[in-house]
């Protein structure tokens, strides 16, 4: 049993890292949806963020610059979405899906010259004593900066949404854009800013993958994580704290199934590969049974087109 | 991504058609045979599809005055594959290489509709009058790296990242394990299946999981270099797959199994040109130049390298077989008797692990 127990620490550490891209993207999308906009283009924004971040890091040799570029590229993609859906009033679902398809192709195009180039990854934190603690040491004190940044973003987003006036206004816009507009709030501007924030967070999620998690560029490197992030937002009933739990659950199941295989426990690997998704679906179903809770937390104007003159 | 490359391919074909219609280079196009290539990944993967494309480039280089080549990359193994192959066949390609196992049935379907077009399908087992198959005896190289792993491990745990539990991968695990146990009977192999050929994130997670469980040498049968980076970071050993992946982890990368299709592709295109092409099955190893090993890591002790080279040349000269009996399965039952070697059919249908592999083959 002690061998299995010794694995707990590494599993925890790997789980936190696996949850990081999901956290970034899902927190961004949460703010977007709280403002009443549904952007299904997370996967596309992640990929463009990943490739731009990687490209800049290769050119400048600085992963910080790459990370900033990834966020900027994600925000750029989101700006495109914002112009189409908020100013030109295009359908949000269709535009979001198109944004993902566009991002997949665009990132592959940009990335053509960057495949097969290795870069140094971001160094991990090391605090003598603390990092060496058994079980929790590596998980809590031995991660790289981006993991902590993602964790810090959870209370920050919660604080912004529920403890600041700007957050209140953003939520008001998401609940009832006509009323917010009547009160004199600039619905389109607020939503545009939220969309940009969501894009930047998705871009960061992508940059984390290509700069840190697996420091390389490969087509489709996000491998569906953008869609998982979208599901996590609903899974968390639009609450930042629950996004964190969801991301950990998903990351944990992903990592645990690999360990189960390595230990030679006789469960079909295909079933294990399915587990994280299965867990997401089951929790979604359980949560969705409580209609009242969904209604209470889901932004009432989510996905609805707003036009000031209507 | 598939849409994008499909689109690119279709645009290329459309441009070609337009050029023909305008009469530009029409005479030229009639003389030159068109050869098509279908790849499962991007040619920039620096792995499996990249190596196939090296074969195509060799054809262009050597026979460029007689043939033109077209390739379509990132073709998923499914309904899209049939459309892509059909597109190539109906646009005048006379010889088409479909380079992944999952293209088997689509290739046969399209071949039936185009009896005048010749097809070459990699790693499959179904043939017809105009469909030939070819593959490399990847397991031969796994015997060599298994032996190196057995000598280099200190923890006696080897991590093995598998893509899908198909015979090609399972026979590789077995060949690796047999050679490893021969030099180090205490070592064991732990297998993690990621159920994907190319998912850097998952491959890295699998490598970390195996290392956390005590593995100090990692072998992989997936296509991305993610595990190489992990091994480099953790200061352990790893073998590359499909192509030389040294630059992703110069310290960790011991050697790599490299596929080499150049000679085969050039020969088959020549055969198609002179009319001697016929449907056949080619399964080549070291001696047919279908695979070789990337340069050994300078950190490898000289005696390990010498032993590895001896194994390789012995396999080449037919003095050694990867599955030389007695070979026992996990229950200790002798599957390949003393003095016998596994038949090609046994290797092609292998769905059991040898002694020394942990876990069971997923069914």
From TrEMBL, chain A:
Highest taxon of source: Bacteria
Alphabetic keyword roster: Cell membrane, Membrane, Transmembrane, Transmembrane helix
Coiled coil: none
TM spans (from-to): 6-25, 37-58, 64-90, 97-120, 140-161, 192-211, 217-236, 243-261, 267-287
Cellular component aspect of the GO annotation: plasma membrane
Pfam families: BPD_transp_2 (PF02653)
UniProt GO molecular function: transmembrane transporter activity
Keyword Metal-binding: no
Keyword Membrane: yes
Main location: membrane
InterPro entries in the record: ABC_transp_permease
Membrane topology qualifier: Multi-pass membrane protein
Compartments where found: Cell membrane
Protein name as it appears in the record: ABC transporter permease
Organism (species): Azospirillum brasilense
UniProtKB/TrEMBL annotation, chain B:
Keywords, ordered alphabetically: Signal
Statement: the UniProt record of this protein carries the keyword Transcription: no
Pfam families, alphabetized: Bmp
One Gene Ontology cellular component annotation held by this UniProt entry: plasma membrane
Name used for this protein in its record: Uncharacterized protein
